[in-house]
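Translate structure to sequence.
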């Protein structure tokens, strides 16, 4: 059960991070806007955070805490239906990850005992996160480059097209004469 919360928290953070990257990656707000801080400036854990999550939260680096709090607030604002849908996605994602780990163990040809299997799983996940992060960064850079090309192409295309008369500035509406009322 404890492992489930770790995986769920990781999935929640990963999915929100990925969606933020896709949406243009807004900058994380200053800590003062995210939540209450301690005298040292560290973020306090929310009072309504379950104990297991609070313990993990307190072990997180400061940057992860800020993102976690932001995601936690988003979670609190979700409807029950959205939460249910999100949980279903988390279960499917957990199963997909478990399958990937099993495939990695099979491909490696290793025979692992329980302790080695857990260590392999941790290391595989660490390395996979690095790969996923590198791919996201690579895709973002590639996307930016391709979008610059699109903008240049459109700029050239629209600079060459003759400008249409500015009919939009003075819309022409047909005027209608009232019907004559002669008997």
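Result:
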């Amino acid at each position: 059960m404890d492992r489930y919360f770790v995986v769920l928290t990781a999935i929640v953070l990963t999915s929100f991070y990925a969606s933020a990257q896709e949406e243009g990656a807004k900058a994380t707000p200053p800590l003062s806007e995210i939540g209450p801080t301690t005298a040292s400036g560290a973020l306090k854990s929310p009072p309504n955070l379950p104990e297991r999550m609070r313990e993990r939260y307190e072990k997180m680096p400061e940057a992860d805490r800020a993102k976690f709090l932001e995601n936690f607030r988003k979670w609190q604002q979700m409807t029950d239906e959205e939460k249910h849908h999100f949980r279903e996605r988390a279960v499917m994602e957990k199963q997909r990850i478990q399958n990937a780990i099993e495939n990695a163990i099979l491909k490696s040809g290793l025979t692992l005992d329980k302790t080695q299997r857990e260590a392999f799983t941790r290391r595989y996940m660490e390395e996979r996160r690095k790969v996923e992060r590198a791919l996201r960064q690579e895709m973002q850079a590639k996307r930016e480059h391709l979008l610059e090309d699109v903008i240049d192409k459109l700029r050239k295309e629209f600079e060459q097209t003759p400008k249409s008369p500015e009919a939009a500035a003075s819309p022409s509406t047909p005027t209608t004469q009232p019907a004559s009322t002669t008997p």
